[in-house]
Structures are given as C-alpha cells and as structure tokens.
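Hi F.,

I've been meaning to write this up properly since the lab meeting, where we talked about keeping a consistent format for the predictions we share between groups. The idea is simple: the sequence comes first, exactly as it goes in, then the structure tokens exactly as they come out, then a line or two of notes. No screenshots and no reformatting. I'm using this chain as the first example so we have something concrete to point to.
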Amino acid sequence: MLLLMVVAAIVAVTQLTVLGSPARSVRWSTVVQALAVGALVCGVGAAVLQWGWTRAVGALGVATVADVQRFAAWTVDPVIEEVAKVLPLLWLAWRRPRAYRQLGYVDHLLLGAALGMGFELLEAVLRFSRLGLAATHVHGGYLVSAGLGGTVTVPSLWTSGTSWLPVPAAYSELFASAGDTPQHLVWTAFAALGIAWFGRRRDALRLLGLLPTLGVALDHANYNARLELPPHADGVLSDLLAWFGDHLHLLLVPALLVAVVLDRLALARGRRERPDVLLAGERTMGLDAGRLARLVTLAPPWSTLVTWQFVLSRRAALRALAAGTPEPGLADGIAPVARALEAPGATAAWQGAGRRLLGGLDLSALRSWRLVLWALALVPAVLYLVLGAFPFTASVQRALTSTVGLWLLAAGVLAGGLLTASQLRGLWTSTRAVPQPSLHEVALRRDARFATALSSLGVAVLMLALTVVERDPNGRVAPTFHVLDALSTLLLVAGLALVLMSFVMFPPSLLFAVGAGGLLVPVLEVSSAFVLTLTTGAILAESGVLMNQANDGGGGGGRGSGGDPPPRYTDNTSRTRTYGKSVADIKGQANRWAARMRARGFDADVPPVRYGKYGWADVTVRAVKGGRELIRHFIYKGP
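Output, unedited:
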C-alpha cells in the first residue's frame, strides 16, 4: 500500500502546483521534497515531542499516561502538530532570510500543503502499511480497514490520477457516499498563508497572519475532541467549528487563486523597477507570453527546460526585490541570463547541446560497491512495503513477518544507516556553504535534505535498539496508548521497513538523471554564474551549460567575441574580481581545483565541457566518493 499512498500524496500536491504555476517560483520537485520533510521531519518531530511531554507528566504521578494522552489529544497535541508542520517555513524565515524573501504567497501555500500532506501520509503509512486479514480489492482501490464506524480505502493508481486531491487513506462512513479530504494538507496550506502575511507586513496588521494557524489548530482540536469526548459533550461552538472544518477545503482553490493574483501584482511592480530582467518585447504586467512561448518551442525539451527555469528564477528575484532584500540582489544575476536567452542561435545548436550533455554522462559510477550495498539493503523493505502490499501478494509480507525477516530488515537498516551517515558531513558542509545571494531552492533543498537524513538516522537508531530488546517481529513499536494513535498500531517489522525505505532518498553513489519535472536545478548567483548542485542523488544538468553549449555549437550572431572585455564576477562581499584573462589562467585554476578534489577521494570523471562566448575552458570535474557531488561550473559573462 505504501506505493499507492505515496502516489496519491504526490498527485494531490501536483494538482495544486499546476494551478499555482502562473505565479509560483518553486519547482515541482521541491514541492515533492517537502512531502518527505513533512513526513520524516515534521511528523517524526511532533511524535517525539508529544511522546516526551506526556510521558514526563505521567511520570509525575498526576495521572496515568493513558489519561494524559487522551487529554492531550484534543488540547495540546493539535497545537504541537500544527506548529511542527509549519516549522520548516519559520526556520527558513529565521535562518535564511534572503531565501525566504524570494517566496511568494503561492509558494507558501504549495509548500505548506506539501508539508501537511507529508504528515498525513506518515499517519496513513503507520496505520495501513501492513495488510490486515480484511484487506481486499474494491472499486476504486483497496479496502484496508473496516468497522462499525466506516471503512478506509487506499486509492488505486487510476483513482488517484482521476480524483481531485486524493487522500493516501480515505475514510468513509458507512452508508455515506462522500469521500474523505486531505485535512492536514488543507490545515497547513492555510497556516502557511498566514505565515506569508506575517512575514511580509511591517505594521500591526501583520498579527492577522497568526489567525489562520490559530483557526486550524482549533479546528484540529475540535475534530479530536469530538472523537475522544462523549457525544453529549458537544456544544454550539463545537458544532460551528465542525461545520467550519467540513467546508474549509472548499476555500483552498479560491485562496490559491487570490494568492496568484497578489503574487502577479507584486511581480508586475518588480518588473517596472527592473526592466532589464525582461526579454525584448515583454510587458511589465507579464500577461503576454508570446516571447517566452517562442523560446519554449525553439528546441524542446532543452529550450523548454531552460526557459521555464529562467521564469521561476526571475520570479524569485523580483519577489526578493519587492521584499527589500539588501544588495547585492539576485536580479543582478537574472538580467545577463535574459540577454543570453535572446542571443541568436539555430535550433540545431540547442539540440546539439542536449546531445553533448547526455553524452557526458558516465554510467561507470553506478558500479560502486556502495551503491550495490545500498540497493541490496533496500530489497527487504521493497518486498514488504511494495511488492507484498497487495491482497494477492500478501504472502510475501507474511513471510517477512518472521524472525528471519526481522533481522534481514535490521541488517538493511544498519547498512543503509551507515551509508547515509557517511554523507552527513558533506551535506552539512554544502548546507553551510550556500553563497549569497542565490536562488532560494539552493538553501531550501540542501537544508531539507540534511534534516531528512538526520531525522531518518535518529529513527533508525531507535528502531535498531527496539529490535535488539524486543526481538519480536509482531511486537508493537509503542505498546501503550500513544499520542499518535497510528504509531500504536505499528509493528516492529513494519517500522524497520519504513525507516529503511526513507534511505531511498540517499543513494551512496551517483545516479545520473537528466529530465523534466524539476530535475534540472538552476542556481543563479549575483555573479550570473551557474552552480551545479546535487539533488536526490543525481548529477543534474545545469541550464547554463546548455545555453553556453548552444552558443558554442554554432548558429552565429552571439554577442560575445574575442574583443569583449574580460568577464566580471561579484562575490559575496561585493568586491569585484576579473577572471578569464587567458585560457591558460582558467584552465590552470580548474586543474588545481580538480587536483584538490582527487586528493579528497573523487573516484569518477565527467568528460570535459566546452564553453564558448568569452573564450573556452575544458573543466574536468570529479564525482564525490560516498554519494555526494559538489560541482561548480562558473560561466562568466560580461556586464
């Protein structure tokens, strides 16, 4: 069921992402990454916090742990959960203010929805990742639970793809036709909008941004109270809150459309202030997409990907400008890119650039023993949670629910945990080394990746300790009543499988991927340099490489020539340096950098890349041993 639940969650956030495309600046892959953060960071953090404080109160002897848990379920815990789900946005505003100012209202809503859906996905997986005896195929999916109150159904692939905001595990009351709604997604999306308002206002009205979080926390508390307390305890206020919660999801799309309008107005103001970021013939309101459409269709998919990344990056730069971000600003790096996109070039040049880029992928790195070990470690979890998660393959899951299966999963968690832990230092270093100013996703994705790895490793240590102590595959992870009721139903063997599956995001070697859907990461700095970064374990092709390869591949008419002045690069301290006075200087600097990387254990080569426009340099880069890559291709452009 895990696979079907994940698909439903991704489909739900994808639908909102598509609707927000006229104004968003975050890529689809970043929104999907927020799903993992919501499940593995926010969900796990909330569970640990709730478990800790309720156990502490119970230890004082004031009441039993079960009584504290029942009281907390409709008082304190909903507040903890709602705050935990938006904590990544709050942390970003506190620790990454430059990156945070690039996010618009639509970005907040999409990221909040993904964080909430990740939390909901975690609860669904904890409850229903293991098949019960009543599991069976029904119309629209698989029935995983049934009782006097209602049924729970995991949607099929077709149902998820043809439904609006599908739920990973939908609850339906008996004799009722209405389906369930992703409540956590809705709650966190509105709370994130409130944070956006609070972060952008500088007057007393900013306090209104706290109301959405307060409102959804009350709705959450009231929802839990109506489940925990006897029916006669409901009052008029509870009924009003219940009615509000039942209809809140109907306001999600109108709220998204309003956010699109607000962001578009802010972008129009930024376009008027910085007309140099516009393409020739573009209007400040940005309603005429003819020029962009021509670039998109020039040589798909390469020109399509690069143009779309340029659009998203420009939106982020203009929002930072509107938010009063101090100089140097990201918009200074966008303007040269706009000029480069308009440089004359034949369609064949773009297509040639794509072929050269694909030809530069070295698949020999996939033979790394670390990657083989990582893949073998994942096999028991894949068998338990994916292949054996259907009624007709339940025998596979039951076979792994044995002592042998338990220790196979434990060995996989140990191997996967060690391989992931080996990447922590590199993740931490790359997180701290984010240059400023840079695109918001540079910091956001690195921070998310590090936090997800750290949380997964923490849970892995806990699960391994429980395995050594309990040694019972069918033992409960939380044998007593727990704040997250879903956790009290989780068996030890399923818990190990879930932890092991989280390591799928941390392959210890290089998985090469060049494709659509947000795999190409544009990292624009004020220097107008493009930095190649690692995301989800893949070497990602940079849009700047494509543009420069296209300009170098023929087509003529480029603005650069041998008589152009040397390119200038503005670093973080606003000092100006001049590079590229000669090919030998650039090549020597690249070779010295590559030598230092070899000394640190780089074990694979990527063929040289040829740069045009301002001279050329064959830059040899190395793939990082242990599954990390820190590659920086600086493409220098004149002012």
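Notes:
The radius of gyration is 26 Å.
The chain is about 55% helix and 5% strand.

If this format works for you, I'll send the rest the same way.

G.
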